[in-house]
Amino acid sequence: MAKLLHPKATAVWLVDNTTLTFKQIADFVGMHELEVQGIADGDVATGVKGFDPVANNQLDQDNIDKAEKDPLVKLKLKFNPAAHDEDKRRGPRYTPLSKRQDRPASILWLVKFHPELSDGQISKLVGTTKPTIQAIRERTHWNIANIQPIDPVALGLCRQSELDAAIQKASKKAGAVMNDDERRKLVSTEQSLGMDAEPRMPSSMEGLETFSLSDPRGEDEDTEDEKDFADADSFFNLPDGGNDEDEDDN
Fold first, then answer.
1. Is 173 exposed, middle or buried (0-12, 13-18, 19+ CB in 10 A)?
2. Residue closest to 93 by CA, chosen among 169, 147, 166, 146
3. Residue ranges under compositional bias (Acidic residues) (predicted)?
């Protein structure tokens, strides 16, 4: 899909050279209607030189004339064959010079936390070569001792949506997700957080599933014990009273 060149400068030109409504201009350049009004009032885009969309083959004059007569008519961007499929990236990703030294750290992060990603996927995400990825996987990179894993999204080497899409694609090839640890490795962060947690018992508590605080002997034995100690004499097993009198006589 073709995109408008210099939208703000185009809006400045349309405000200065046409009688189009603010809404018509805003819809065409992809700005808010109040922002276009700010351009007309001189509060926005101060010092920006107007960009003629007619002279630069982005808009037809006939379309402008019709839109000026009817506020409901929308401006239409002219089709440019050279801009066809311009959103599709071709070839390796370009990485700015200022961020190229961060690529090994991002590769190590992807290899460590998402081993299911292929070398081709990592290469597209961070704009590197497969030999570099293989060297980091095998820990034969010349600077492997000093590399710390860092999220490529945090470094600005790729977008979170691109990383999630690559992880989802890799997870489909890997098959079903079994446990928590494998699930967090194979699926995206958003998807893993949406899954139900699996109940896990600590190893130190295994074998205690049937443990109970109740007396295993049952209620009948408890009743018998209560009967045995119903009176003090039976509890202390005191001697008969006649023996005490005999001892006093002696």
1. exposed
2. 166
3. 218-228
User: Which tokens is 182 given?
Assistant: 């494998």
What pTM does this model have?
Answer: 0.38
User: Residue 179 in contact with residue 198, Cβ under 8 Å?
Assistant: yes
List all residues 6 or more positions away from 229 whose beta carbon is below 8 Å from its beta carbon: 235
Residues 6 or more apart whose Cβ sits within 8 Å of residue 34: 22
pLDDT for 103-119, tens place per residue?
A: 899 999 999 999 889 99
Structural contact between residues 168 and 146, judged by C-beta atoms closer than 8 angstroms: no
The answer to whether 20 and 61 have CB atoms below 8 angstroms apart is no
Which one-letter DSSP state was computed for residue 239? P
